[in-house]
Design brief:
mainly alpha, Ammonium transporter fold, 60% helix, globular
């Protein structure tokens, strides 16, 4: 029997939103889990994947119980965060009703709250998974299990409310199309602080941390790149022209960033590497994220080049310079996520084109648009810099406080035995088993014989 949809619902918009959310989910599981498993040292492949798996599941539970409403619900504590309430009772209502502060600023959504909640969950889930890249090879998994839900509620949801949920930074005019600040700057600065607080890897791991499977890493990176179409293409909440433009801009900036990294490697380091290609790709994806629907193709190219070149220099020429030398950031998330996200977010204030619309308003009237300095709006650049400073300061301090609190109850570092043995000591598992050849038994002696393997004679 055919059951009609609710009158507000557009099957096309809803189908794209669920598809986009699934693409973003695939970026975490298996995307980052596979990428991490290939790019880390072999003895840490299982634990890195386990940290990603745990974070994905744990964030979903806290998200529906409190995180979503803290990020998008009714204001609480002086308009700094939303009220922590579960969102399991109104999944069929129109999606915009779940974001009270934005009701008068956005057109009616044509998808249900359940689609919106799930779409926002996959963003919340990937953020601590990115953060994990800074502390591989030494963070105690029990501490990680406590850290993830606390950080998601006290840091991520606060960021989401402040910029996306209609909070005070949003009211000042700070914009972040799809998470350059809320996700990547947050994960980058928090990962750096976590690496500083937890302490460095063993000296042996710092000196020898070669990837164990580069083709596996490329597979994970490929899932990440294509999954990003949902990351940026789903954020208008409508299957509209801006969603299509955001997808094209995402791929264009990423290609430019990867090529920029290639040329810098060839020109200055005289060699190419798969790890470098992946780093350049990630920088492009991250840098375009805060700007994808606000810039035209020229802006996307500029963001791709700048968002790759600066992280290349800090990673390859400044790793021994303060502040980078202060923390053992395993996968360099301070470079590829914090810096790239910061560059993209600030460049919104420079090259955002007001002709790009995030959505059309009611009855086809003009909706939200953003213009940067090059289009006559210096104020946007100022507020983008302010937003970056606020997210950096709050997230860094909050991460430090959460870790210090956890350390009162659970050690932040693995035991010496686990640090030395890695996955085998922690899980009694490894990414692949190295079996020794099964010894071939010697042939049995002839029947009745007294060879050296025959049974001893009985009697005298």
């Amino acid at each position: 029997m055919y059951i009609p949809s609710s009158s507000y619902l557009s099957p096309g918009d809803n189908a794209w939103q669920l598809t986009a959310a699934t693409l973003v989910g695939l970026m975490s599981i298996p995307g980052l889990a596979v990428l991490y498993g290939g790019v880390v040292k072999r003895k840490w492949a299982v634990s890195s994947a386990m940290m990603a798996l745990y974070a994905f599941g744990a964030v979903l539970v806290v998200w529906v119980l409190a995180g979503f409403s803290m990020g998008f619900g009714h204001p609480w504590i002086g308009n700094l965060v939303g009220q922590p309430l579960p969102v399991l009772g109104a999944l069929q209502e129109e999606g915009r009703a779940a974001i009270p502060l934005l009701k008068g600023l956005m057109p009616a959504f044509r998808l249900p709250a359940s689609s919106l909640i799930y779409f926002q969950f996959v963003f919340a889930a990937i953020t601590p998974i990115i953060l994990a890249g800074a502390v591989f090879g030494r963070m105690n998994l029990k501490a990680w299990m406590i850290f993830v839900p606390l950080w998601s509620l006290l840091v991520y949801s606060v960021n989401a409310f402040t910029i996306w949920g209609g909070g005070w930074l949003a009211q000042l005019g700070v914009v972040d199309y799809s998470g350059g600040y809320v996700i990547h700057v947050a994960a980058g600065i928090s990962g750096f602080v976590a690496a500083l607080v937890v302490g460095p890897r063993t000296l042996q791991d710092q000196r020898d941390f070669k990837p164990n499977n580069m083709l596996l890493a490329v597979m994970g990176a490929g899932i990440l790149w294509l999954g990003w179409n949902g990351f940026n293409g789903g954020d208008p909440y409508f299957a509209n022209a801006d969603a299509a433009a955001a997808v094209l801009n995402t791929n264009l900036a990423t290609a430019m960033a990867m090529l920029t990294w290639f040329f810098l490697e060839m020109g200055l380091n005289r060699k190419l590497s798969i790890v470098g290609a992946i780093n350049g790709m990630i920088c492009g994806l991250v840098a375009i994220t805060p700007a994808a629907g606000y810039v035209d193709g020229f802006g996307a190219i500029l963001i791709g080049v700048a968002g790759s070149a600066l992280p290349w220099f800090t990673m390859n020429r400044m790793s021994g310079v303060w502040p980078f030398r202060k923390a053992d950031d395993t996968l360099g998330v301070i470079h590829t996520h914090y810096l790239a996200g910061a560059i993209g977010g600030v460049m919104v204030g420079l090259v955002a084109n007001p002709a790009m619309l995030v959505y059309l308003g009611a009855h086809g009237s003009a909706g939200a648009s953003v213009s940067g300095l090059l289009y006559g709006n210096p104020h946007q650049l100022l507020v983008q810099v302010l937003g970056l400073a606020v997210v950096t300061a709050y997230d860094g301090l909050a991460t430090w406080g959460i870790l210090k609190l956890i350390a009162l109850f659970v050690p932040l570092r693995m035991s010496e035995r686990e640090l030395e043995g890695g996955d085998r000591a922690i899980f009694d598992e490894e990414v692949f088993e190295l079996h020794h050849p099964i010894p071939v038994p010697e042939p049995l002696p002839p029947a009745g014989g007294r060879g050296k393997h025959s049974a001893p004679a009985l009697g005298g």
